[in-house]
């Protein structure tokens, strides 16, 4: 007999990077399930506006995920306002794109600090609380760039591979510790219609994915305990099947479907506002240089 989906009503959820995009959609989805929600974001004014729009007692706090102390304060604030955290979503992340050889070091450090260390700090802060109660669920938002490395986003892909790997390892540690009441999921969406996903190239046949689709898949994972959360789910079968093929065949098929360049040759005009905002998203670092734009001739030569 299949397990009944877990009832989420009354649970406390905390979401990092919750002011916009996927985090915002998750906050709405959680509230629809009857959960009490807190969102944290570096842009605290945007977080407060989002919380007010959502209503239903949603609260917002300033959060810098590159600072473990800030995450500690966020968790303390959430538990003081709403009660013990049942669900913690490590969602905050940025994606700055360029050819790897053109990427400046400040940009690389920024992505590693936010996308990877932010997730590691989040788990280190909340998991001891959950393990002590033997209750809770951590959701790490990665990407399908954490399963397939993509040209134009080498460092971004590296951070997401690391998030998937860390999630796998921590899940095993929880099992070996006997913390059977604590679950972990890793969410891996393809290109999502958000500011972060703007101007990218969809592979042939790839459906439009909205933030709400990722939020709904996350709700299902919380209800069922699913670890691998692919959005869309069909891509998991593609990944499994491609692993049976020789690399040369995989790469030939990928080129034929234009699945090798979602982050390559992107629409820089559409991404400019996002890239500039992302460059300011780690207060401890100076903004990196803007990605070097290829000329039409250089693009043609490389294509």
TrEMBL record:
Keyword Oxidoreductase set for record: yes
Region (Disordered): 278-303
Keywords, in A-Z order: Oxidoreductase
Gene3D superfamilies cross-referenced by the UniProt entry: NAD(P)-binding Rossmann-like Domain
Domain of life: Bacteria
Enzyme's top EC category: oxidoreductase
Pfam families tied to this protein: adh_short (PF00106)
SUPFAM superfamilies found in the cross-reference section: NAD(P)-binding Rossmann-fold domains (SSF51735)
EC number: 1.3.1.87
Name of the protein in its database record: 3-phenylpropionate-dihydrodiol/cinnamic acid-dihydrodiol dehydrogenase
Keyword Iron-sulfur: no
Coiled-coil positions: none
Protein family membership: Belongs to the short-chain dehydrogenases/reductases (SDR) family.
Gene Ontology molecular-function annotations: 2,3-dihydroxy-2,3-dihydro-phenylpropionate dehydrogenase activity; oxidoreductase activity, acting on the CH-OH group of donors, NAD or NADP as acceptor
